[in-house]
Write a structure and sequence with these properties.
- This protein folds into two domains: 124 residues, no CATH class; 57 residues.
- Helices cover 56% and strands 2% of the residues.
- The chain has eleven helices and two strands.
- The two termini are 28 Å apart.
- By secondary structure, it is mainly alpha-helical.
- The radius of gyration is 19 Å and the shape is elongated.
- Strands 1-2 form a two-stranded antiparallel ribbon.
């Protein structure tokens, strides 16, 4: 997923270099305070590393905003049916950990995911049938459209699957994406606060 170094710092692509430098300083201070935190330390360190790379790109005289596919450019948005694993997690029937376990087995065995989920007794045949029917009735964006979601993916804090699941929930819950990611425990409020993200508070 293309995301500009400005967007990684939570800024629009037309921001001045001085603004990017100020944002990097402010965000670095907030994230450094979390580096030894049990829940957020590893994520804070990853975010700091990626932000340091972003500010380096911005300050590099050869950085070309147009070539990055930056935040102000509109991408063609395709809609598709959610993948079975995504809809299983969104419905609350399985966890991301159970999905990962099932996908690993699917890769090794070549058995369809629905069968793996049944074999592992994560889903009953009736639940699977209902999910497969519902899957055909739902259209969701095929990629992350939320700026905070794109930023969290670029910072390696959440996966694209997590964001796409939260986007599905947004359709019915009408809450900020970050709040939905926090509610599921996929990201911590202290971290999103340090990143200056909209949590709908």
């Amino acid at each position: 997923m293309d995301i500009s170094p400005y967007a990684i710092l939570g800024l629009n692509d037309d921001a001045a270099v001085a603004d990017a430098d100020a944002a990097f300083g402010r965000l670095s201070a907030s994230l450094n305070a979390l580096k030894d935190d049990d829940k957020n330390g590893a994520f804070a360190r990853k975010a700091l590393e990626r932000m340091a790379h972003a500010i380096s790109q911005i300050k590099n005289a050869g950085y070309d905003k147009v070539s990055t596919g930056g935040g102000d450019q509109k991408e063609d948005l395709n809609y598709t049916h959610p993948r079975l694993g995504q809809i299983c997690v969104a419905s609350g029937l399985i966890s991301m950990e159970q999905l990962s376990e099932a996908v690993e087995e699917q890769i090794v065995s070549g058995i369809p995911l629905g069968e793996v989920l049944q074999d592992k007794q994560f889903l009953s045949p009736i639940q699977l049938e209902g999910l497969l029917l519902g899957q055909e009735m739902i259209d969701v964006p095929s990629q992350c459209v939320d700026p905070d979601g794109r930023r969290l993916i670029a910072l390696d804090i959440v996966t694209e699957d997590m964001v796409l699941i939260a986007q599905m929930e947004q359709k019915s819950l009408n809450q900020p994406l970050v709040a939905l990611l926090e509610r599921r425990g996929w990201v911590n409020e202290r971290l999103t606060h340090a990143l200056e993200m909209d949590r709908g508070n």
